[in-house]
Protein 1
Amino acid sequence: MIAASEIELRAGSELLLLAPMLRVDKGDRICLVGRNGAGKTTLSRVLAGESAPAGGGIKTTGTVGYLPQDPRTADPDQLARSRVLSARGLDAVSLRMAKAAEALAMPGINAEEFDKSGERYNRALDEFETGAIEVSEEGSPEAVDRDRRSHIEPDRVGALHAAVA
């Protein structure tokens, strides 16, 4: 969650934006619209914690994903998909999913390794779908209580195993 009050953004002495109150709750998506130079990128950077406002205060709980619009700030060898996922801290989780899926598809994989790889894949998928971890009010990571778990259904395991064998 992001809660901002009396946010003031300036370019030198020019006031770009004065926002009395802004709140973004978990799961919300926002869109900033305005003319060039209106302060959209500056506000995004401030809300993500990458720079400070000229005035006002911001309180965040949990993680805040921010993907800079300037491609020069990125690693030129990084794929666009990885860059987008890294804004939410999901690039490593995606890599673990890919490795587990690769292990599941290995010809001649035995049942025990298939089960272990399936469990690794399911854990990574669960992390990916829930955003991995959340940060508590005190700032310490804690596991997310998941209402909905994704997994390979038992009846599909046989079909998947047969398809890759």
Protein 2
Amino acid sequence: METILQVNAVKKHYGPVQVLRQCTLEIQAGEIYGLLGINGAGKTSLMKLVLGLQKLDGGNIFVLGREIRDSPAYLAQVGSIIETPSFYEHLTAQALLTMHLAYLGREGDILEFPVSSATVELAAQAVGVIPARIAKTLSFLVEGGCVLVVAAGDAKIDNSKYKAIFHTKAKMLTPEQVSDFTGHTIGGVCPFANPEGVKTYLDVSLQRFGTVFPAAGSSNSAIELTCDELADYAHSLGWIDVCKGWQESISFPPSPPIGLVDKISEKDQV
């Protein structure tokens, strides 16, 4: 029987997080093979490796008897649908973001400025809105992985609320870690089009506004999105309430949180 797919001792990691360790499998012609595992187990990563969308960190893969490193010609005989958009590691984070927005028909909506928008205040000046409408992306280290929390520009992390949700103290990533995990630099971290393994949550402080302005992958750009669009594009894992300070800046009650995440399972989500 012909071997369709052969995976030998494959390794894959994102920064310090190892998602595939010595992964080995073999699929014969006519077989139907299912991959079972919890979120983050590496199922999608393996599919992306087979399709050449990501680079191997160890081991080798053969499709139809040909090692995928030799030539991409095998892809002409392969059909694939992956549950979330897949990106190419040889592209920059900005190029990936542009491609992601092109999928969504929004590539023409990026606002690029002749001045820096690296801070909330600078971004608000560049866009011409109040600072609270800037959707800032905060990067945290949780159990060795990257968690992004997108909050209103006037909101600050409340340590007690954060610990109640993530079961750990708030520890922000270093600039080097931000770059390793997301491909972006501080001041231009985008909440969507990030590598697999980066988990994104939205804070309810954003729900006061019809539209908000997250960074668009550089320190001099932004894009205007509704909260629903932001949640969709970011593949958000939910709305959470981990910030303080923003309530004092409004004289009207905030919109009720939609799908508020009250508590996240230590094993399943983070």
